[in-house]
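Mods, move this if it's the wrong board.
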Amino acid sequence: MPVTNVSHDVEARTLTITAEFAAPITRIWQIYADPRQLEKIWGPPTYPATVVDHEFRPGGRVTYFMTSPEGEKFAGYWIIDSIDEPNGFSFRDGFADDDFTPVESLPVSRNDFTFTERDGHTVATFLSTYDSAEDLQKVLEMGVVEGASGAVNQIDDLVA
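Not the wrong board. Structure tokens:
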């Protein structure tokens, strides 16, 4: 499995997932830069993602929804803050309603995804920071560790 470590720090309001992939850094970068590939790994295996808009540039917006096994749709969005191709990118990720308007009552995470190459493999660090310990606790209770880990673990199949 690609996920090698998951940790959260309530005091720092962070969730960190580390993974290693048997692929070069440029291949991992392509997954996030291409909306059709992103769809294959963004949602957990039982909640596949559909990317609607994909403006993968600083200031750009990515909108998506995940579909539950029962057919329910859960919308979300990214606002891209910075891009350092192929080493990583930063973005805000939030929950949205059906027309992709942010849901103010749910947490927004600030995310730094970094990729480093080591011996032909890519080590990825997915760092999410929340505004409050309560926001972090809320997403932990919603299953973010299991969902995000399941999503990340799909990358190996895609790059195989």
